[in-house]
Amino acid sequence: MTEHADSPRADTPLEPEPLPVEPLPVEPLPVEPDTKDWTWTLHETCPDCGFTASEVDGPSVADRVEALTEPWQDVLARPDATTRPAPTTWSPLEYACHVRDVCRVFTERVDWMLRKEGPDFPDWDQDSAAVTGRYHLQDPAVVARELAEAADDVRAAFSTVEPDQWQRTGRRSNGSLFTIESLGQYFLHDLAHHLVDVGA
Question: Which of 53, 55, 113, 117 could form an SS bridge with 170, CB 3.0 to 4.6 Å?
Fold first, then answer.
């Protein structure tokens, strides 16, 4: 019998099956950069979250950290933790990553203010950190653990401040001058405000 030209021979290797192509992750829309100067919250009650920073004295800062960070454990356990409520608004996960990193930044700043005379703080761009850190792709369970650890560290940093050190100063790159006390007040407002942002 004549073999057809298009019939595969028994010894002809079969073409390998093409490997499945993983779809590229969909990048979220950019969030509008926060360029506002929030130092006014050191002197006025924030109308959005109701926090009055000036009512907190330096020695009370460390004790307030736990109450303002513990709720994130429940937030990150929500089924919608990775979902943005609007295309250009961070998801609860992204806010949690931001709070984790804020805790880390302020731990460093307290350390600098205690070790140096009037240090200048290096720039920290929160919006750039969200993009380069891929906040939207992080694991909520991992972030929950990291946020708890970062909160412990910043609480410990403020706990080490001696009574005569609360007025030591440091300066942000835009010229804003902080004492360790006002830095703590400013930090606590940030924590309180973001809990409101995610409805916690």
Answer: 113
Q: Compute CA 64 distance to the chain's CA centroid, rounded to the nearest angstrom.
A: 18
Residue 190: inside a domain: yes
Q: Is the dihedral of CA 176, 150, 63, 157 positive or negative?
A: negative
Phi, psi (degrees; rounded to nearest 5) at 111: -60, -45
Residue 177 backbone phi and psi in degrees, to 5: -100, 130
- Residue 159 maps to a domain: yes
Residue 84 lies in a domain: yes
CA 83 → CA 22, 23, 76, 122, 129, distances in Å? Answer: 22, 19, 11, 32, 19
pLDDT in tens, 145-181: 999 999 999 999 999 999 999 999 999 988 899 999 9
Q: How far apart are CA 49 and CA 192, in angstroms?
A: 7
Task: Judge contact between 182 and 43, C-beta under 8 A.
Answer: no
Domain count, the chain: 1
Would you give the distance in Å from CA 163 to the centre of its chain?
30
Query: Domain for residue 54, yes or no?
Result: no
> How far is residue 172's CA from residue 27's CA, in Å, rounded to a whole number?
31
Helix, strand or coil, per DSSP, at residue 102: helix
Give the CATH number of the domain where residue 113 resides. Answer: 1.20.120.450
| Separation between Cα atoms, residue 4 and residue 51, nearest integer Å | 84
pTM value is: 0.83
Q: What is the largest distance, in Å, between two alpha-carbon atoms of the chain?
A: 103
For residue 141, the enclosing domain spans 59-197
